[in-house]
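Predict the holo structure. Ligand: zinc ion.
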Amino acid sequence: MAGLSEAVRKAMQADAERVKERQATNFTKSWNLTGKTAIVEPGGSVTVRFGPRWTISITIDGKLVMNPEYRSGEELIFVKALEHWWDADGGKTQHAWCPKSLNPNAECPVCMSAAIDMKSEDEGERKRGKRVAAKEVFIFNAAVGNPRKLADGKADIRIMSVPGTIYTRVYDIMTGGSDETFARGNVGDHKEGYDLKFTRPRKDTQGDRWSVDCAPNPSPLYSDAQKTAFAGWPGMLVNLEEMLIKETKSGNDLFKMYYGRDPEPDEIGTASAESAPEATEPEAAVETNPTPDMIDEFMTPASTAGPKAPTPPKASAPAATGARPRTGGRR
Ligand SMILES: [Zn+2]
């Protein structure tokens, strides 16, 4: 074996770690409502169409088919998560799911840092603490625009994290809020869901809030004109529970990402513990590629839907809300 100098190894290490980090954290494409890649400018509006729950399809013998057990509106079309945003050296914005998203008892170094900063005498530190503190978000599958935005002529379905203010408005639309007769039900239904219009406040300051309007009439996920582009769309829905499990770092790994070094034994309760177990890899389900020529049986009435599929295999992934001791669970 030809050797590798310490200098070369060091030179390669930083990039390798950065790329690995990026692969681990920015794996899933998203529609962003704020920040540099926001899909709507301050004061502007965007049409958002949530997707149905990802369990609408299953893969049998490599073919994507309608899940016979799927019932619209019987299960949530989103997952709830906690996320952290902070500015790394050089001003690059960093994002990570908080380990408490999966286990409320998990230890999180970023939450700890935020809590300390927020109690500081220094205004700058208090501001930083508020910035990095965990934010509750609700993650949906979504298409945007009307007609829908495409990517290379294909449907572009991505995850979208919405804050609590938007979530409560969506809740009111779905349930009717105080008047049930106005309830729109499952707005993410692929046949009779509703387009939503998100209007961004002029300034991202407190008090100015997003508004959410609902289309007056139900509509399918896409129009006839975009039928070709949407062929195989159920396979594009992200399994949000699996995504969260896969992308959420352990307390130790998050510490490394946040501080750029390993924790000392007393800095996080689990520093000396063995690494957190890897999430189980239900790869086949996640990586399913929609077949481009797939007949779109999902839009046809149930009676003429595709072949009756055998009982689908139960998802092997643990529920995202289940107690998953990512950091070793030590108290
Ligand atoms: Zn946290």
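The first strand starts at residue 30 and ends at 31. The pocket of zinc ion is lined by residues 84, 98, 100, 108, 110-111, 134 (CB under 6 Å).
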